[in-house]
Design goal:
- With about 350 residues, the protein is of the alpha/beta class.
- The chain has eleven helices and 15 strands.
- Strands 3, 4, 5, 6, 7, 14 and 15 form a seven-stranded mixed sheet that branches.
- Helix 4 packs across helix 9 (about 285-295).
- The longest helix has 14 residues, at about 140-155.
- It starts with a strand and ends in a 5-residue tail after the last strand.
- The structure holds zinc ion (ZN) (2 copies).
- One zinc ion binds near residues 39, 57, 58, 143 and 144.
- The site of one zinc ion (ZN) has 8 residues, from helix 2.
């Protein structure tokens, strides 16, 4: 089968790999589409991934064959795969945060058995069936939607809040979409790319602006029109510093986008305004089910969040570079084929 393989030096090449064989409790899934995630881009463009690795985790697909004990899954069933569950008893699990379960094996970010390829073997117990109202292609948005829902839930945002989202790329746009679905109406998106600003407005941001347009706060007091909650979705240190500066008393900053340079935190400002900073990593308990329901409900504008043209395996590397430049606003899906 064709696969987009990380070959080192920030580069990806299409290789021919053997089709994996499912065990008794596993199924073979044909990947329909797999989204390019910011984490894939960090691993490739910054060269962290191990050569030989196939990346990609935001996939949806169709069952091809099932192992002898995986009798619930007929060929043609349309599916996504749940993350591995938490233990259910440790402190993070009891808080509804299985992504940071204490018994979870340390993730191997470097050599990931990913879905930028045609076939995957998946444990049958992890599969979730797609409803008839959700296309397989839109279902490739399940994982990032589950992240956005988790992010919004952790933030404690309520519909009347004034919200800032820094970064209007795929993560920021999806965060805006989930906020809108939750009834939040006062959403400002700051983003340097005009293309991404326009898309953010279409998705539901009430105000879009360039990052250099924010006022500088006075010592120990909020700006004139401060925000209650800020979601930092760009991974840029300067954006995080700006977001913190724009918060109101008792405001909350949520880190969503990872980045290479670390922001400087004004602890004096945090103390005087009693600010909260928190990080949001993965999913709520049963977060994929909730994300599937949200996508199937039609309240998430997938046509604005997903780029209209899918790319093929041979275009993954150059597409990542374009995404990193801000030349593309929405989520790019990879169709696991090669150009003929
Ligand atoms: Zn992802
Ligand atoms: Zn646990």
């Amino acid at each position: 089968m064709p696969a987009a393989v990380y070959v080192g030096d920030g580069k990806i090449a299409v290789h021919d790999l053997p089709v994996p064989v499912p065990g008794p409790h596993e199924v073979l899934v044909e990947v329909s589409q797999c989204g390019i995630c910011g984490s894939d881009m960090h691993l490739v463009l910054e060269g962290y991934a191990r050569p030989g690795t196939v990346l990609g985790h935001e996939w949806a697909g169709t069952v091809v064959t099932s192992g002898s004990a995986a009798t619930d899954w007929e060929p043609g069933a349309r599916v996504v795969s749940n993350p591995t569950p938490g233990c259910g008893t440790c402190r993070p699990c009891r808080l509804g945060r299985p992504s940071v379960c204490l018994t979870r094996a340390a993730p191997d970010y470097l050599s990931f058995g990913g879905a930028f390829c045609r076939y995957l073997v998946v444990g049958a117990e992890r599969l979730l069936r797609l409803s008839d109202t959700l296309s397989t292609r839109d279902a490739a948005l399940t994982e990032p939607t589950a992240i956005a829902v988790h992010t919004v839930n952790l933030s404690g945002v309520v519909p009347g809040d004034r919200v800032l989202v820094t970064g209007g790329g795929p993560v920021g746009l999806l965060t805006v979409a989930v906020l809108v679905a939750r009834g939040v109406t006062d959403i400002t998106v700051s983003e340097p790319s005009p293309l991404r600003r326009d898309r953010a407005a279409a998705v539901g941001a009430s105000v879009v602006m360039a990052p250099d347009q924010f006022p500088t706060p006075g010592l120990g007091r909020p700006v004139a029109a401060p925000f209650d909650v800020a979601f930092e979705c760009s991974g840029q240190a300067a954006a995080a510093e700006t977001a913190l500066d724009q918060l109101d008393f008792a405001g909350t900053l949520v880190f969503v986008g990872t980045g290479r340079t670390m922001p400087r935190i004004n602890h004096n400002r945090m103390i005087v305004l009693e600010l909260t900073i928190l990080g949001a990593y993965n999913y709520d308990d049963d977060g994929f089910r909730g994300a599937l329901d949200l996508l199937a409900s039609g309240t998430i504008p997938t046509d604005l969040l997903i780029e209209p043209d899918d790319v093929l395996l041979g275009e993954v590397g150059e597409t990542m570079a374009r995404l990193a430049q801000g030349e593309i606003a929405g989520k790019v899906l990879v169709r696991p084929e090669v150009a003929s």
